[in-house]
Amino acid sequence: MKKKSRELEVAIEAALQAGKILEKYFETAILKEFKEDYGIVTLADKKSEEIIKKIILKNFPNHSILGEETGMTANGEKYMWHIDPIDGTRNFANGIPIFAVSLALVSHDEILLGVVYNSATRSLFYAEKGKGAYFNDKRIFVSKDNKENAIMTVSPGGDRLNRQLFLTLYYSIPQGVSRSIRNLGCTALELAYVARGGLEANIQLGLSTYDFAGGALLVLEAGGKITKLDGSPWKFPENKFIASNGVFHDLLIEEVKKQKAKVGQN
User: Of 117, 140, 163, which residue constitutes the final position of a domain?
Assistant: First the structure.
């Protein structure tokens, strides 16, 4: 991107600095703490969020921040950062290099920029509204592959009904709809891979805004398509949606409707 906004430059700096912390702790005997919702938090999560917040607030003291580990830091209503210090903490804590720092700046429910960084592979994704999506400073676009060659992922939500739908979609979608279905355990990267053309689709079933905000903008700026599960227009912060390259999106909508009916969801 030739002309990055100051906000994007700060977001990239924060992601890279947080990535250095993750490098320090990755593949070490790191202590895991279990949350009430069965999620995991590590010292690396806390240190990563701490440095991200420090950098953002130093540059934009009037911006609010919603972080996974520290919750809401309210400084104003116009701009809010949604940050996940480690998306894919369970992967990270077990030495699996599929995790990322994820940041997004939102104003009045409009995502202005998004950054996703995997320090294990030095993969930096970023996008700014109306300026395209980039991977390690090169412009990226969604793939043109149809269902015959498609790889898609499904990201489970937290509650029981979403979990039930996740299992149904994961195990019941036929090869006639997608060649391969996976769950990588890192929503931010799954959406980034859709944007880069490494995946053709991702179905989101109810995660938090800091999990998907940055990745969602990447998909849209790379020429992809996002709708609600029923095919109606999607708008942030709706957390149940289909993101794809757009080639077989309508087929995915029909398949999700079919699988929802199987589990008694309208």
Answer: 140
Range of the domain at 173: 147-262
Listed residue (105, 76, 101, 73) closest to 87, CA to CA: 101
Answer whether residue 176 is part of any domain: yes
Q: Answer yes or no: are the C-beta atoms of 206 and 162 closer than 8 Å.
A: yes
CA distance 74 to 56: 13
3-state SS class at 245: coil
Same domain, 252 and 162: yes
In the chain, what is the straight-line distance between the N-terminal and C-terminal CA atoms, in Å?
42
On whether the CB atoms of residues 103 and 14 are closer than 8 A, the answer is yes
Burial of 1 (0-12, 13-18, 19+ CB in 10 A): middle
Q: Are residues 91 and 155 in the same domain?
A: no
CA separation, residue 16 to residues 49, 68, 162 (Å): 12, 18, 33
Per-position pLDDT tens, the chain of length 266: 889 999 999 999 999 999 999 999 998 866 566 655 545 678 899 999 999 999 999 999 999 999 999 999 999 889 999 999 999 999 998 999 999 999 999 999 999 999 999 999 999 999 999 999 999 999 999 999 999 999 999 998 777 778 888 998 998 888 789 999 999 999 999 999 999 999 999 999 999 999 999 999 999 999 999 999 999 999 999 999 999 999 999 999 999 999 999 888 87
The model carries a pTM of 0.94
Look at residue 1 and tell me if it is in a domain.
no
CA 177 – CA 194 distance, rounded (Å): 16
Contact 223, 144 (CB under 8 A): no
